[in-house]
Amino acid sequence: MADLVLIKHNYIKVKLPKGSLSLNHVAIFHPPGRLVDVNNPFGKDIANAALYRALVRWGDFEKVHILNQINVSSDDLREDLYARDLESTDILSAPLSEIEALKSSGILLRGQPYLSELAWLRRSQCSDSDFSLAGLIHTVAPAQIRERIGQSLFAPVQSWDALICTSPAVQDNVGRLFDAYEEYVLERFGGRCIQRPQLPLIPLAVDLPERSSGVSLEFASLFRSKLQVESDDIVVLWVGRLSFFEKAFPQSMFLALEQAASQTSKTVHFLMVGWFPRGDSDYNLYLEAAQKLAPNVKVSFLDGNQPKVVSAAWNLADIFLSLVDNIQETFGLTPLEAMASGLPVVASDWDGYRMTIRDGVDGFLIPTLFPDLQDLGVLLANSHALELMAYQDYVGSLAQHTSVDVKLASRALLSLIESPSLRKKMGEAGRARVETTFSWPVVVGQYRELFSELDACRQHYQLEHAHSESRPARVHPSRGNPFVDFLAFASASLGDDDFVQCSVEPDQWLFVWDQLQDVKLNNVYPSFRLNQQELMLLRSHLHRKPCCSVRELKDLFLPSRSEHVLLTLSWLCKYGLLSIPS
Asked: What global pTM score does this model have?
């Protein structure tokens, strides 16, 4: 049996014996189904798609279930997951409620930090210990996300579940969030929330082979020529959403580049590759700031929705610059992409950046300053909580008053501009760090270890409680069965002992039935009723025998279709084909 030890925050952690990483099946909760590239992508969506593809490619799983709501085909999933040539792994599509797939896998991964509703789904269908849940935290800035993370303390989340943190700062933030909730519960109810999900630290990663692939020499040459970049020029690159309210105010970067450009004989270019969430209005703000703050830097704004443009920019760049100042930024994937591309990085000393970038080794971390406020901070929080201030204005207000040391940033940039050998040394160090620490094969190994650890913890619980009385399935108190919760709204209910009768004359029955089918509005939400073939069987039976018990009509079909029969009978009553005998 695995050895158990108690660690911080009452999490139960299991010491795994060597060779115990035996999980061969994983389920992924992905309601949209498809993993297709879209314009104006968000970082979390890019990261999730990359993670799912990496788990398929490097996870050594025999089966991967994708739980979705559109019944996507397995062939489409293989294409989206870049796994057409991966014959050793079965990739299966399943509905969101496919509990058997979850039980057989033992783990359900979600690319969001919302465990509460999944924990209630688990409890409503099976035992809490039938499988583990793992959610991934991409940001902790929005109040709604923090609140939904906090709800996991009041849901049937267990110690064999996990919320994966991508940086130590996020891990600390969520731990303190749970502490605050527990303190409130103790004060309010005299009790304590003792079941927390584990908070493992696992970073995001990049695909090194993908970063190595470039664009054609012809396109690269055309790209360089269009931007008027000469062979001795220095190209500094930003990649990411061009949003001052959710990513970074660009002024610190413009100022630092201008100061560096004024002290070198080289021409400095700054390529900002991304997209503007608010279109031309934001573009004009960035353009004005660039013209006024960095007149001696050639600033270009390029479309991040064009893969060839993005690849060409990575190939052309000499230095990567990212002075983020926003609490929305949690891990920060683009500096890793820069390191994978062999570029030295100049980045703000901020959250996940300080975990990935080694100051003076892979690049430079530039100090940041965050005010320590009380009254105004509470005012901002309350304004956002009461929906008097939009989220973008909430985080934007904080970012506007978070500083990055421009002087040190300009020195870092200048040292790299003036020294090709330093650029090469730091770029090589960064790429080596990605290969050993932040490449997908390495990080997927950490996911496998976590899944196995959760599995061992869950199985230990099952052994300890093997002879305990099983807990009955329970639904979420406020999200229960509507046919139970709202039963009293109606005059009566339809059950097995009730009878239904045709409401039209036998010679009109087929005509009225077909008339019902011809009205489009009558036929919305068909998935809850009998299918067309089954409807024909029901129609024929009622035509022969106009008055039947509900039980008799149910017996015409498989037991698994009995509730669909009930809904279909109620639907036929709704439109006047059937009625309840008085």
From this structure: 0.86
